[in-house]
Design goal:
By secondary structure, the chain is mainly alpha-helical. Helix content is 68%, strand content 0%. The longest helix is centred in the last third of the chain and has 21 residues, at 159-179. Residues 47-172 form the Imm-5-like domain.
Length: 182
């Protein structure tokens, strides 16, 4: 069993974990066409990881969606992505406070607010939720759900594409487990 302080850096999540009240599957925060079985499998894998590795997974998972973000200013987009990614990486390495991370999360959310279409908006939310994972690990599954929302936009009613995306997410989580010998 993972140590409570490693399970989450957030006291609220630590208490849920310690009290046996961490729910899997978690409730959906958005409406999507999904494979609930694959989502459950992903959550079970993430549950075994410390917060640090969940945050790494979320950030790496979000990379596949950055190209869909369009705010009308490529330099600003890249600046926000670089700045917020750097803060999350510092948080993962124990060199940034939760306060700085939360501010980075607010900055990352500007990508969604400035988006020129729904594809961009939901892709930006994949990224912003990945940054927020540095504050609370529960944002990781929300980020993965926004990735499914993007797939739903790109491939309406295509359950195969949804399963392929969930499989990609699961494979990425398993890769991190293997890479860091978790």
């Amino acid at each position: 069993m993972i140590d409570t302080s490693k399970f989450s850096w957030n006291e609220f999540e630590q208490n849920l974990f310690q009290d046996g009240k961490w729910e899997i599957p978690s409730k959906y925060k958005i409406k999507i066409n999904d494979s609930s079985e694959k989502r459950y499998k992903l959550e079970m894998i993430l549950y075994k990881m410390s917060h640090k590795y969940v945050a790494r997974w979320a950030l790496e998972n979000a990379q596949a969606f950055l190209s869909f973000i369009e705010i009308g200013d490529k330099e600003l987009k890249e600046s926000i992505i670089c700045e917020t990614t750097a803060v999350l990486n510092m948080r993962i390495d124990g060199k940034s406070s939760a306060y700085k991370l939360r501010n980075a999360g607010f900055l990352a959310n500007k990508l969604g607010q400035m988006s020129i279409n729904d594809l961009s908006k939901y892709s930006a939310r994949v990224f912003a939720q990945s940054i927020a994972t540095g504050h609370m690990r529960g944002h990781a599954i929300v980020s993965s759900d926004y990735a499914i929302k993007v797939i739903n936009i790109l491939f309406p009613n295509d359950n195969l594409k949804v399963e392929e995306e969930r499989n990609r997410q699961i494979e990425l989580a398993n890769k991190i487990i293997k890479e860091y010998d978790i």
